[in-house]
Write a structure and sequence with these properties.
2 domains, six-stranded mixed β-sheet, 13 helices, 6 strands, extended, KDZ
Length: 341
Amino acid sequence: MTLSDTKYLYWLIVALDANFKLKNRIPKNEYDDPSLGPGWGAFVEPCCYKKHLREYIAEKDVHVPSALTQKKQEIRLACEFPASVDVYVHTTSVCGPTVRGIYRKGSGEVLTDEQEYTVSYDIACQWKKHFNARMEKLPKALQRNFSKLLVKCGLPVWHALTHEEECTNENNLNLLPGVGKSDGEGIECLWAILNALSFQTKEMSLGNRADTMEGKLDSHNFLKSLGHGDTLRWHLVVAITERARQVEVLKEINKTIKLEKRVEWQAQINCYLEDRSVPNPYVMKKKDGPSEADICVKLRIEEQADAANGQAPLHATSATVFLTAGLQLEETQYVFVMAAR
């Protein structure tokens, strides 16, 4: 096994997300209340950050009625930062140092710049576009040279299901090499912890708010560090057992597949890993034909036509409902059989 085969072990996987529940309001009589260590912990340095926000010109809203636009402006005046952006080190399940930012509506795609190798984000399909161009608009101190770094973006496993099928197939985190079983959803667990502070910190000054959240994040990271031993040991046991099972399954599959076909499939996978513009070998090609929904609609139309002609159904359950229930029952039985193995 060469170094290139094991380099994924050292790749950093980070998860990005914005939490609008952690928005804060602008107090009318706010006084200068800096945090104890601005920019030293999980939050970025506030002065430079605000300066960047002021200099960045957000895109104007288009196709929005003037009344709605005015209302949105009033909301923005009441909420200085409508959300909180977090960078979660998914590899170790901790919040990374000096990567936590504050999202300003219309400019979130230019504010979070600390990512290397694999980035999980629920809008990664849009966020990765013009990435290098947006990097050039950041302050010089925050710019990074990505010419020698490989940055890959993917959709978290659960969030990917909400995207269009073509988008999901192209950006699925499961299809990125080196990701393994990381689902990219670990940052949602962090939001569950921080959301308890949302109402408590909403009226706080920015410095006090940052210190309060820093304490919660430090506690989270500390507890995660204490539990890494047990977590890694559990993952090791599961990995060894699962590997043995997968080896036996692959041996059985290989008995039914010719060597020429396996070589052809591997060549397609290698080509796809080098050039993502080629057809995705992990996506089954669709055949022309009606879907289950199309068939159900056609059957309902036929039943309605029969009813209009005076042909009463023989049973209380229609043929469409009966066939749909049969397919669902068959799928449930298959799931139980696979789970019992």
